[in-house]
Amino acid sequence: MQNVVRDVACTVCGCVCDDLIVTTDAGRIVRADGACALAEPWFAAQGRSQRPVSCVDGTETDLASAVQAAADILSSSSLPLLYGLSRSSTPGQRAAIALGDRLGGIVDTTASRCHAPSIMALQQVGESTCSLGEVRQRSDVVVYWGANPLRSHPRHLERYAGEPEGTFVPRGRADRHIVVVDPNATETAAIADTHLQVAPGRDFELLWDLRARLAGQTDDVSPAHGIPAEQVDAFAERIRAARYGIVFFGLGLTRGTVGHQDVEALLLMVRDAHRHTRWSARRMRIPGDVAGADSVLCWQTGFPFSVDLSRGYPRYNPGEFSANELLERGDVDACLLLGCDGLGQFSDAAMKRLESIPTIVFDDATVETAWTPSVRFTTAAYGMHLPGTAYRMDEVPIPLRPVLESDCPSDEEILQQIAARLEG
Ligand code: SF4
Prior knowledge:
The chain folds into two domains: 52-114 and 288-381 and 407-421, Rossmann fold; 116-283, Dimethylsulfoxide Reductase, domain 2 (3-Layer(aba) Sandwich). Helices cover 35% and strands 20% of the residues. It has helices spanning 40-45, 63-76, 90-103, 116-125, 132-138, 149-152, 156-161, 187-191, 203-214, 229-241, 251-254, 259-273, 290-301, 323-329, 348-356, 411-421; strands at 3-8, 20-25, 28-33, 54-56, 59-60, 80-84, 106-109, 141-145, 177-181, 194-196, 244-249, 278-283, 307-308, 315-316, 334-338, 359-363, 375-378, 388-391, 397-400. The strands form four sheets. A nine-stranded mixed sheet has the order 5-4-17-16-15-6-7-13-14, covered by helices on one side. A five-stranded parallel sheet has the order 10-9-8-11-12. A three-stranded antiparallel sheet has the order 1-2-3. Strand 4 (54-56) and strand 5 form a beta hairpin. The mean pLDDT is 94. Bound molecules: iron/sulfur cluster. Iron/sulfur cluster binds at residues 10, 12-13, 15-17, 35-36, 38-39, 153-155.
């Protein structure tokens, strides 16, 4: 018999759209209205795989034995790494950090290979924030800087920043001017009102040129960015004349050789714009609950990623305590992956090391690993089989409601069982 669940939240990307209507039948999702092209494969895959709940060295094992094997690996490790967290939810993230604390290990999230430079910039200069609800109701100038949401967050424009009619933008798209700053002719640039094709790696120069013009200086401060002066002037004027402006910035800005300084320049430019009108800046977060992983790690340790707990108190040092670099240097001798998201961003050397040390993998039934982990747990997915909370890219917590049943335990349950079996 078919069952229809309304107001389902999708956790595939940081938009966390919570207006989906999902139809299930015989343990499968047969329809997901509102799911974009990025989300459809995730919903369609649910219920297909009958992966065992627990395996040790690739062989199906009862849960208690697998939990014991994981506890043995972690107990004998001198420095374990706990990585991922962004496909989990608050309860699983909290349990993983508690386990890392108990072990004296290092906890890092997918942010360390993603928006880490942005976080470091935010720590330097602060952030002028807003919710996506404010963007929807108020924004009349929307800038996507180094981001291509039509591909990475397909419903971002439809739900928040492009088409929606809002209290102060009653005609929706007709009341908004969309600017894309990107060296590439992306899908989003094609539908934008203005595309500033900045020279690759020259965002910093363009941002400082804009800052100078916002401060009333009109010389060519740095033509190296490749945008003609009259276009930069027009952009500065549009920033000044906006009633409510928002800059969404993505990995195209953060992944430069000086990504944190590029983001710092952007945040300073937004701060300058406040001399004239209201502007905010927000990150285009990629995985569904990476903002939750930052938030939970922050309220547990005081730091958002790359946290070393080996001395009995938290220490934060991106690079030194970041998963990719720890693996490249061979500093860690066991790894617990709470979700395999983010492994695609690791270097070859880091992956080689990861595949050579004992690994404990938690993920849902749809995920394959390129190697055979020492222990693998198939967990129920939050927002699919379990209730939970996902933090949207604007850090607004969105409740997750389950749509399917699952025999698999939650990651929180298994992490707590492992903690209970640790030696000492
Ligand atoms: S935009 Fe993101 S959250 Fe919304 S339906 Fe698509 S993948 Fe899911």
